[in-house]
Amino acid sequence: GFKCGIVGLPNVGKSTLFNALTATAAAEAANFPFCTIEPNVGRVGVPDPRLDMIAKIGGSAKIVPTQLEFVDIAGLVRGASKGEGLGNQFLANIRETDAIIKVVRCFIDENVTHVEGDVDPIRDAETIETELMLADMESLERRVTSLGKKAKGGDKDSKMQLDLVERALKVLEQGKPARTMEVSEDEAKSFQMLQLLTAKPILFVCNVEEEAAAEGNALSAKVAEMATAQGARSVVISAKIEEEVSQLDSEEEKQEFLETLGLEETGLARVIREGYALLGLITFFTVGPKEARAWTVHKGAKAPQAAGAIHSDFERGFIKAETIAYTDFVELGGEQACKEAGKMRQEGRDYLVHDGDLMLFRFNV
Ligand code: GDP
């Protein structure tokens, strides 16, 4: 699965947000045959109105959204990389994620202490980034030693890697995250294998007071500005509201509650969608009388890989894909009409999957 790690300083609302996510996941669990929820891992359905539309047109009995995993990564504090808590477990957890969600506190509440004394999300974001950069430097320095030996022994691959590692170190020493460094196509794979924390894409989540949930506040506006300058994105949520919504039983109650607050959807829905985009993922659909289902692949995936997302046998025995664009399916009103209008395409191994494609795979067993 695709994973987003949630990090932030203590007392910013991470657990509140994470609990709301997992409560939502638990409520949805009935829809997911293989949904397991570990204490710090929540798997949630990605909200997608297109899927509901497809199910309606296709007369599907069941709707199965695609999923995204969120991992609650506790333990980040100032000085963490100098041994004040950024333990091995923390590092192992965060290295394994595909993207990082940084929760920053933008709500003022005298009853909730801030570890740094006052509320300042920009400083907090910098503290987090610094700790992650220091952790990256440490792991790179360890590699320099071992790679240096192999490179001296004449190993070509080690030489290339050593050069990459040394360049990454230089970038970090200048106070810049690893994601800003230039990496050639040949190096891309090695770079990825370094699993640098500051190379991962980031999303800022601004936790604001309930009253500011719709528009954000002055602090979240500053974070948004900073995010834009870094080529990142930010989302405003109120963890408190998310917690309350997640405890309501029915969809109707949730909608009603959101409406009274002037909100169109939950902040979680936005976080999930942004997380999805952050990971560079796209969705394709399968539809039939039994179920309409959404599936996830990386942008750039070809038809056989999409088949493999459903079952490895589909990829191995791939013959062709019958494909309908989402807009054709909706405009013409279903598969049969698309067939008749010549809008159902036969595609081969090289077909680049588009976001929103409806796909049916033909394969040998
Ligand atoms: P974590 O340490 O980052 O996981 O933070 P928690 O989720 O445990 O929250 C720390 C405290 O802040 C708890 O007492 C929460 O109830 C409170 N809190 C979290 N979000 C909000 C919020 O949006 N508004 C207010 N007033 N308090 C919040």
From TrEMBL:
Taking every annotated instance into account, which residue ranges of this chain make up the domain OBG-type G? 2-257
CDD domains annotated for this entry?
TGS_YchF_OLA1 (cd04867), YchF (cd01900)
Ranges where the TGS domain occurs: 280-363
The highest taxon in the source lineage is Bacteria
Q: Which GO terms describe its molecular function?
A: ATP binding; ATP hydrolysis activity; GTP binding; metal ion binding; ribosomal large subunit binding
Annotated keywords: ATP-binding, Magnesium, Metal-binding, Nucleotide-binding
Family per record: Belongs to the TRAFAC class OBG-HflX-like GTPase superfamily. OBG GTPase family. YchF/OLA1 subfamily.
Q: Look up and give the organism this protein is from.
A: Magnetovibrio blakemorei
Instruction: Tell me the Gene3D superfamilies matching this sequence.
Output: 3.10.20.30, P-loop containing nucleotide triphosphate hydrolases, TGS-like domain
From which lineage does this chain's organism come?
A: Bacteria, Pseudomonadati, Pseudomonadota, Alphaproteobacteria, Rhodospirillales
**GO cellular-component terms in the record?**
cytoplasm
Q: Which cofactor does it need?
A: Mg(2+)
Q: What does the function comment of this entry state? A: ATPase that binds to both the 70S ribosome and the 50S ribosomal subunit in a nucleotide-independent manner.
Q: What's this protein's name?
A: Ribosome-binding ATPase YchF
Q: Which PANTHER family match?
A: OBG GTPASE FAMILY, OBG-TYPE G DOMAIN-CONTAINING PROTEIN
Q: Which amino acid positions bind ATP, per UniProt?
A: 11-16
